[in-house]
Structure formats: structure tokens, C-alpha cells
Amino acid sequence: MSTKGDKWGFQPEKSNVIVLDRPVAPLYRQLRLKVPSLASCFFCGGCSATCTASEEGMNFRVVHLLLCRGEMEKVGSLIAPCLLCGKCTLVCPRNVDTRSVVFNLKLALHELQ
Ligand code: SF4
Ligand code: SF4
Question: Is residue 3 part of a domain?
């Protein structure tokens, strides 16, 4: 006998959609409060293209994506080479204060250690 939800003989997969406007990780929520301009980021990658530390693996766009997803494991090693030079902040078309984001992120991760 079929029950509600399996009348087609299969169950649909639970949605994997990540709603980037709804921060899930507590650390990310704190960052959005400290640097409200982070909410304006639309992941264009302009900051990453100009980053002084890109050859060492720093990539603000990827860091932001990982933060949105709550995947904190790789964030520390990605931001480690950042020199806080602020070049990324100058080129951002949405005026995201990327330098402050990385600075506050470094502080928060240091406090967690
Ligand atoms: S340049 Fe600005 S809007 Fe584009 S990914 Fe970087 S922070 Fe986000
Ligand atoms: S502040 Fe950090 S992320 Fe931004 S350009 Fe400089 S080294 Fe790259």
C-alpha cells in the first residue's frame, strides 16, 4: 500500500540549495554584523583577480563562499597569506570592505585557537 510521499515509488532528494543570503555559520553571522558591506558581495571575483597574495592561495571569493556554506575547515589556511594590504577593497564594485572582513576573520580564528 502506498503512503503519502511515495505514491510514485520514489522519494525526492532533500534540497541541496544553499541560500547565500541566509548565513548559517555563527562566525559568518558575526562577521556580517561587524562588516555589513559583506552582504553586498555578489561573488564576481574582482578582488581575487587583483589580490597580492593570490599566488599563495588567497582567494576572497572562495573564502566568502566557504563561509556562506559553513565550511570553516579550509578558511584558516586560505586567509593565512593575506597581507591586509587592502588592494582588494579598492577594486570591489560593491564597496565590500574585504580587508576588514579578512582582518576580523583572522582575529576570530585566532581567538578560537
Ligand atoms: S570584488 Fe567585491 S563583490 Fe566581487 S567577489 Fe570580491 S568582495 Fe565580492
Ligand atoms: S588585503 Fe589580503 S585579500 Fe586583499 S588584496 Fe591584500 S592580500 Fe589580497
Answer: no
